[in-house]
Each structure stands twice: as C-alpha cells, then as structure tokens.
Amino acid sequence: MKRDTLLIALMILASAANADTVAELNESELKAIDANNDGFLSKDEFNAFSDYAFQEMDEDKNGSLGLEEAKPFLDIKQFQSVDRNGDSFISRAEYKAQMSADFEAADKDGNGQLD
Residue 112 pLDDT > 80, yes or no? Predict the structure, then answer.
C-alpha cells in the first residue's frame, strides 16, 4: 500500500509540466485518495493525500526531499522543475506549491474538486 500511495503522489508531482494528468487518475487511484468516497477529489482530500505522501517520501524526516529520495519517482528534469530555488532539495513549501499549482490547473471549472 505504501508503495502504491507514493506512486500515485509522484505520478501527480511528476506531472509538474502537465497538470492534466491529475484529472486523469484511474478509478482505483481516485478511490485511494477520495476519503469520503463521493467520486470526487476535493482540494482538502488532495492536500491531505499530498501531505501524507510527502511524509512517506521524506525518508530521513528532515523536512525536504533530496534527489536520492525522489529518484525512484522523478527524473532529474522533473526534480529541478519542482526545486524552485535550485538548492538540490525539494522543500515542503516547494512541494506544496507544485501540488497546489497542479490541482488548480487540473480543476478546469474552478469548483474546487476533480472528478
């Protein structure tokens, strides 16, 4: 389960340049994130899942993702696009900013949920 959860999170994160991927989660992936089982992914559900995924990826629990922690999921170009300050770490703030941007881009009608 942990590996599947991380794969979903990083599939979303890896889509930094293509936020449409967020809206194209398959049914089993959506069910894993859809806490209230209403068939939609709310911003709150997305944020809770994103926070959980970050904590799981942060193996050394230092509050940031180094390249080695992200390497199983992100290629170097994807990593660099999320590492906005170029310090070779994805901070929690950088991660949240990317995830928020991805959600907003995927929420085409602006209703605060993905379906």
Answer: yes
SS3 112: coil
- Partner residues linked to 64 by β-bridges: 91
Q: Which residues contact 93 (CB under 8 A, 6 or more apart)?
A: none
How big, in percent rounded to 5, are the helix, strand and coil portions of the chain?
60, 10, 30
Give all domains of the chain, ordered by start, each with its CATH number.
2-107 (1.10.238)
Q: How long is the chain?
A: 115
Please provide the DSSP assignment of 61-97 as one string: -SSEEEHHHHTTT--HHHHHHH-TT-SSEEEHHHHHH
Residue pLDDT, tens place only, 22-77: 445 556 666 778 888 888 889 999 898 888 888 988 999 999 999 999 888 788 99
Query: Which tokens go with 64?
Result: 């940031």
